């Protein structure tokens, strides 16, 4: 049974308003990339530029430092995402399906970091990676944050709902625990993997404080470092900065559009747990 017409109209209006509120910052950033140095901060506010400066996008896209920062960040984000999924999915499977001594205590130990702010352990984390000689390497951006209590928790809840009969049948057929994980659990984990993978990717891509602390090599500069240092390196060219920010957002937007179906399914699964 359809809702009354006024209710449907109200829903449509709300959807449009919410969509506009979400898209407006992105649209403003993209259009601000066509503005001049001081036109972005003009008072009173003006959405569209007086003159569309396409050269801003051409200049930033031709900047070798910007291109290198985009590429090295993208490679690092993919490696970080892959490592996070491997580590957290295997840990989640172990806590969901295996029995071992001290399992409850180990689970509590692994979950505690969920309740500790990252900034609270920033200094100690920096001291650890310094002692290990990991500064100014891509490894310092990838390895320390790969294990995630939140991802372990999410995937463990997902694995707990797998039918036990399927696993028992595989054990009877002679499959090892690792083979069951690879051939039974992983093929059914695409939706949660996409959700967790996008979370890992975004966490790496948007990281600023940690790369600033651990990376000084210009060849390893991350994209958020590059944009954060833009004003001191290039002056107050806000139009060029907005153009760079827009181009830096494109890989993430593209991934969201590609995997949107799996993201929706993963969120739906999370809502049923």
What is the overall shape? Answer: globular
Structural class by SSE content? mainly alpha
CATH homologous superfamily label of one domain: MetI-like
Question: Average pLDDT, to the nearest integer?
Answer: 87
- What is the count of helical runs? 15
Task: Kindly report how far apart the N and C termini lie.
Answer: 29 Å
Q: How much strand? A: under 5%
Give me the Rg, rounded. Answer: 23 Å
For this structure, what is the CATH class of one domain?
Answer: Mainly Alpha
As residue ranges, the low-confidence spans are none
In the CATH hierarchy, the architecture of one domain is Orthogonal Bundle
**Percentage of residues in helical conformation:** 55-70%
Annotation, overall tally of beta strands: 0
Biggest beta sheet summary:
none
CATH topology of one domain: MetI-like fold
Return the string of H and E elements. HHHHHHHHHHHHHHH
């Amino acid at each position: 049974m359809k809702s009354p017409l006024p209710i449907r109209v109200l829903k449509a209006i709300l959807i449009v308003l919410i969509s506009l509120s979400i898209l407006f910052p992105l649209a403003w950033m993209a259009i601000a990339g066509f503005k001049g140095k001081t036109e972005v901060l003009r008072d009173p506010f003006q959405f569209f530029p007086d003159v569309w400066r396409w050269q801003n996008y051409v200049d930033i896209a031709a900047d070798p430092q910007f291109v290198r920062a985009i590429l090295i960040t993208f490679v690092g984000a993919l490696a970080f995402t892959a490592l996070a999924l491997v580590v957290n999915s295997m840990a989640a499977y172990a806590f969901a399906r295996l029995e071992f001594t001290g399992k409850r205590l180990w689970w509590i130990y692994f979950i505690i970091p969920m309740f500790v702010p990252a900034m609270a352990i920033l200094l100690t984390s920096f001291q650890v990676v310094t002692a290990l000689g990991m500064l100014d390497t891509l490894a310092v951006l990838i390895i320390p944050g790969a294990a995630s209590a939140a991802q372990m928790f999410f995937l463990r809840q997902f694995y707990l709902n797998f039918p036990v009969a399927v696993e028992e049948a595989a054990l009877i057929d002679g499959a090892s625990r690792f083979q069951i994980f690879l051939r039974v659990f992983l093929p059914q984990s695409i939706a949660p993997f996409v959700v967790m993978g996008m979370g890992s990717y975004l966490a790496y891509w948007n990281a600023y404080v940690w790369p600033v602390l651990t990376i000084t090599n210009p060849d390893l500069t991350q994209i958020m470092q590059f944009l954060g240092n833009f004003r001191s390196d290039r002056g107050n060219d806000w139009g060029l900065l907005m153009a760079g920010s827009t181009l830096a957002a494109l890989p993430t937007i593209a991934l969201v559009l590609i995997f949107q179906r799996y993201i929706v399914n993963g969120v739906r699964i999370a809502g049923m747990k």
